[in-house]
Design goal:
By secondary structure, the protein is an alpha/beta fold. It is built from three helices and five strands, in the order E-H-E-H-E-H-E-E. The protein has a domain of about 60 residues. Strands 2-1-3-5-4 form a five-stranded mixed β-sheet, with helices on both faces. Strand 4 and strand 5 form a beta hairpin.
Length: about 100
Amino acid sequence: MDSFRVLLVDDEEEFLATVIKRLRKRDVNAIGAGSGAEALQMLEKDPLDVVVLDVKMPGMDGMQTLREIKNRFLFLRIESVEFFSKDLWSVNLYLNFG
């Protein structure tokens, strides 16, 4: 089975690099974007299996990015949205590219 592909979106570069590194050690094909706008550009070029969004980002925040993903990629199905503790304001979007 092929590894699923994950796009992590966070404006904190060190945190993003650390999470990507840890996922890759577990054979997850993980890439990162430093902003919502960058994430949308990446999704235009190459649809991925999972997108993990930080909610609190400057400029286009995670919720705005989520709305844009839903508007631009109508063929995607969002299977679940999970909010974690108030200290880790992240949204997991599991996108099914049927």
